[in-house]
Amino acid sequence: xxxxxxxxxxxxxxxxxxxxxxxxxxxxxxxxxxxxxxxxxxxxxxxxxxxxxxxxxxxxxxxxxxxxxxxxxxxxxxxxxxxxxxxxxxxxxxxxxxxxxxxxxxxxxxxxxxxxxxxxxxxxxxxxxxxxxxxxxxxxxxxxxxxxxxxxxxxxxxxxxxxxxxxxxxxxxxxxxxxxxxxxxxxxxxxxxxxxxxxxxxxxxxxxxxxxxxxxxxxxxxxxxxxxxxxxxxxxxxxxxxxxxxxxxxxxxxxxxxxxxxxxxxxxxxxxx
Length: 273
Description:
Layout lengths: L14 E7 L6 H11 L4 E6 L6 H10 L4 E5 L6 H15 L3 E4 L11 H8 L4 E5 L6 E3 L3 H18 L11 E4 H6 L11 H12 L4 E5 L1 E3 L10 H23 L10 E2 L12
Parallel strand pairs: 1-2, 1-4, 2-3, 5-8, 6-9, 8-10
Antiparallel strand pairs: 4-7, 5-7
GO molecular function, one term: glycosyltransferase activity
Pfam family, one: Glycos_transf_2
Family: Belongs to the glycosyltransferase 2 family.
């Protein structure tokens, strides 16, 4: 598939869905089953942070009965970003062509994964977006929606990013995209990890597409969001923004030549912030 006559995208290859877990025993079986039903050819990697509730053991049992399911056991809880980075490295070592981020709690609908993969045929990175036309959130209090929208808006304005949902975590990458992002330089451990990857993709000139998704609040278990995570995100985004503006004033800003497209990536230019 060509990108506005400028680039031809190769075949996607086998997809690996990475599902980080910490105390998700109530959810892991259901989410794995839904992914397998939605995209039967995809593989799944459960990256478990030594969950005290036995999530890792349940994942092992799922893997024992299904050669499309794999488990990465980590030594302890080190944050979402660290879990994804470990999963990314595993995926690249195993030769997967597409790497997907997905929450374990059902907030990201596996049934919408084909939409992301279809869009990836003409993109380097696809973001499942709550804030483009057609996207929505379900069962969120207004305060949570305000914080999420506000955080995404602050991030894209501070960092001059063209996508609307900068903080969302339902994403599909081509392997070449991950290989080109400088993963060894990513330091964010918490949810700010998502902002970091988005800004790196734009800076590197990758084509980023947003497609609408429905985000559903978890039914079981506890949210991993905390005050510390929010403080880390605010601090890092502000720091990155100041550095980017300083670099621009000094004539050193060469990133962001390409942006994101919304609603399935129709059109070749950057999306409207």
